[in-house]
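Sync notes, pocket subgroup
Present: LS, DG
LS reminded everyone that the earlier model was apo-only. Rerun requested with 6-O-phosphono-alpha-D-glucopyranose included. Inputs:
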Amino acid sequence: MCGIVGYMGPKEAAPILIKGLHRLEYRGYDSAGIALINGNGKLSIYKTKGKVANLEKLLSDKDVSGCVGIAHTRWATHGEPNEANAHPHLSEHNNIALIHNGIIENYKALKEELVSKGYHFYSDTDTEVIVQLIQYIMDTHKISLTEAVPQALANVIGAYAIAIIDKDNPDVMIAARKGSPLIVGIGKDEFFIGSDATPIVEYTDKVVYLEEGQIALMERGKELQVTDLNKINISPVVKKLEISLEEIEKGGFADFMLKEIYEQPQTLRNSMSGRLHPDLGEVRLSGIIDNKEKFLNARRIIICACGTSWHAALIGKYMIEEIARIPVEVEYSSEFRYRNPVIYDDDIVIAISQSGETADTLAALKLARTKGAFLFGICNVVGSSIPRETDSGCYTHAGPEIGVASTKAFTAQVSTLALLALSLAKEKGTIDDATRLRLVAELQRIPDKIEKILKHDRNISMLAPIFTYARNFIYLGRGYNYPVALEGALKLKEISYIHAEGYPAAEMKHGPIALIDEELPVVVIATRKGKYDKIVSNIQEIKSRKGKIISIVTEGDVDVRKISDWSFEIPDTEECFVPLLSTIPLQLLAYHIAVVKGRNVDQPRNLAKSVTVE
Ligand code: G6P
């Protein structure tokens, strides 16, 4: 949540910062702001409500000169989205500017104290206390900004990623992190700050991922200095960025979401590459091989996740239990972390997270750590916090996902879970060789089958205008298609703002059936494998109540097509891999309905891609 970008170097900062904000906008987009130390030494701050484009408009006739600056795009937590609450925030003497991502939990107490000492506040944010506290410490102890920052942060409780500039020290930029991600990019005589790599990748591939409680001091003409909160020096580990500029641009597509839907054949090939060996009928996941004994002796697996990743977890449960015969529990991270769950030291806790930064999932892992469980991460963003918090894991390799509604990251999570299940099954001997060979060979064919489904995109886009009237949708599926129904409903509500519910098809009789009338569109995932006859009966029940049926069926299906109002075919596959295919038309359906309704599909209202606050 919230995008942070900073620059200090020989170039003009403003264009770099604005471009960076555009790249970061998917993290939050209710207001934006920029602070620059202009060529004449003045500190200029410009802020607006709304998107980065508004800020750009505001800047068109302003002095945006200067080679050092910070900028922010906000997802509001404390205080409504308006100009006053937008970042950067200024200190009492108008010389220090600060931007922040995270939540300061003790801000009220700090604010009261600072107000009593004569400091003035202009916003409702928690952020403003950090910059005022820094100023207060500088004023009372007569110390420099560099000395005051660790002292101030030692008094702050909560999560933060911050970037600071000071009018009186135009050759210095400071960044710090605790609980919220922050990256420093190192170029030739220049430094970049980013809450992720997207604003940096265009300029340098050398980055330092700040660790918990670290402060980065960037001084013109000097090497990057990193310390902890006790001012102990730490040698920064410079890593090579593994993403390319191409991956974070739209590449001719109307929206990132559409691009990411279309990327899925390739992202799945990437996620399986080097791991799936159809020639040997094997899967090799180093995270499993290196920790074989842990997995073989595991009492059970607990998967913690949020949002779309939670849906992938549910599919993972079905796969692992069916193929590898290990009991799996799937937990919402936010519930798990607060309800004193039973965790044994021979449990394996798997965290699934696209961003690798979701605050609740990180907290769930930390809780599991205290109980002695083995921690395994399935994440997409390389170098993010969860992979660093876990004992082992595997990346999903879907590449940067910019659209707020997750698509390619989801299918890459599911394919990674399929690899995990197959790898565990091999180690445990729970499936025979012939079955394993068949499954491995089929998994290899999935990307081609997705390509085939994508060719029918036009049919789905033509259907979309019919449903702009709808205020509700129901999505039904059984077995492996039940989590797909949940995910399909989530996609639709996220980006079109039409209320949608996913349900296990048989549960419909226990409530949602009351909603069915001639207006209600019901999406039924009725692929041939699994409980086909049962779902046909469920469709009949909807039909006889005049519901409008949109079905996802297996190629060549006759029965379901006959009783549906609209149908989309997907190729046949093994039952456990059906979600990788049945999800695709649902992503496209949600996308096209949202487009027809004129929604901003990449940046839907109120949402953020990376939820770094609980
Ligand atoms: C947000 C995003 C979702 C995502 C969820 C979990 O709500 O908008 O797309 O599924 O967070 O995020 P994670 O990064 O942990 O997968």
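DG: DSSP finds 20 helices and 27 strands in the chain.
LS: Residues 306-309, 353-355, 358, 361, 404, 406, 607, 609-611 surround 6-O-phosphono-alpha-D-glucopyranose (CB under 6 Å).
Action: DG to write up.
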